[in-house]
Amino acid sequence: SVAPPTKVFVNILVAADGTVKEPNISYNPSGDEALAEEAKRVVLAWKYKPAEVNGRPVPSRITVPVTFTSE
């Protein structure tokens, strides 16, 4: 049987240029440190449309889920 998906929640800083900085694990229900480290590594490659204030991009913090599945 296939294990259910595992989620790790990562708090990140989305910089004004849309890149990801400062990933920190906010919730890791599995307790698996290897998954937590992989989640932090993966989100650093993501790119976002930054938040805007008065039409100008600004840094902001968000929490994103990273889902792991086994095959």
Strand order in space, largest sheet: 2-1-5
Number of strands: 5
Global structural class: alpha+beta
**Uncertain runs:** none
Number of helices: 1
The oligomeric status of these chains comes to single chain
How big is the Rg?
14 Å
Helix content: 10-25%
Q: H/E order of the elements?
A: EEHEEE
Beta-strand residue percentage:
over 45%
CA-based shape? elongated
Mean residue pLDDT: 95
Main β-sheet: number of strands, strand sense, barrel status? 3 strands, antiparallel
**Termini Cα gap:** 9 Å
Question: Your description of this structure?
Answer:
The protein has 71 residues and is an alpha+beta fold. The chain has one helix at 33-43; strands at 6-14, 20-27, 51-53, 56-58, 60-68. The protein has a 3-stranded antiparallel sheet with strand order 2-1-5. A two-stranded antiparallel ribbon has the order 3-4. A hairpin with a 5-residue loop joins β1 (6-14) and β2. The longest helix has 11 residues, at 33-43. The protein is elongated.
Short synopsis of the structure:
By secondary structure, the chain is of the alpha+beta class. It is 15% helix and 45% strand. Strand 1 (6-14) and strand 2 form a beta hairpin.
Which SSEs are present, and which pair or pack?
Elements lengths: L5 E9 L5 E8 L5 H11 L7 E3 L2 E3 L1 E9 L3
Antiparallel strand pairs: 1-2, 1-5, 3-4
Give descriptors for this structure:
elongated, alpha+beta, 71 residues
